[in-house]
Amino acid sequence: MYFNFENTAIHYKENGKGKAVVLLHGFLESSDMWGTYAKELAKTFHVILIDLPGHGQSGFFSNSTTIDKMAEMVKALIDYLELSKVQMLGHSMGGYVSLSFAELYPEKLESFILFHSTAYADSDEVKAKRMLALEMLDKHPKLYIKMTLTRLFRPETIGNFEPEVDGLIECALKVSPPFGGYAEAVKAMKTRPDRIHILKYDIPKYFIAGKFDPVISAESSKMQIENIKNGSGVFLEQAGHMGYIEEKEIALKLITQFLNGDEV
User: Fold this and answer.
1) How confident is the model at residue 64 (pLDDT cuts 50, 70, 90)?
2) E strands within the chain?
């Protein structure tokens, strides 16, 4: 299904009945990443899956994409679906959108999970890497996509997930229009503000980190978990940045428990 936001077609799917849960994917991913999670959660929740701008089957906002605008788009869809309040699960970039949503529309958010994400803004070092990413996307987009997705896994165990890695790459290469939305997403991530103060909000929150995450250091995640108000966090002991694949069973269990309001 599609809805229109600022003359851009945004693709979304709905499954199940119950309390609403919005699932937000990460950079170079799509709503398809939530396959098993969406199926299981739909047994007890009303699951809304969104392709963020420039990803999956959604269009993108040329030269005007920001993380805040993505959050505004999510809010517009929630209003379109006439939902009063939602829980939110965001992987990586999807977590950045969740944090923006929490700041802009706290009254709409029942709780949220940051899954391999961070409330900190990009450091100067990371911003420099974003610039290199833009150059690679312009000159060698297919190579960049393959290299980036592969590097998100823990090197010691990536061999256990070859079909999943191949599927991610294949999906990422299918976007239409090709790759322009990825560049806009890189710019949006690079310019997003620090939102560490959101971790002090009263909204219930949960932090899932990877012990071997190459994108967000374990030290950074530990500091954020220790400073969470009305929430907690956990490390997936065998995961890099892709714990939803690398440690699927335990991640799904933890997510389900939190969304159900059970102690995690």
Assistant:
1) confident
2) 2-5, 8-15, 19-24, 45-50, 86-91, 109-115, 205-210, 231-236
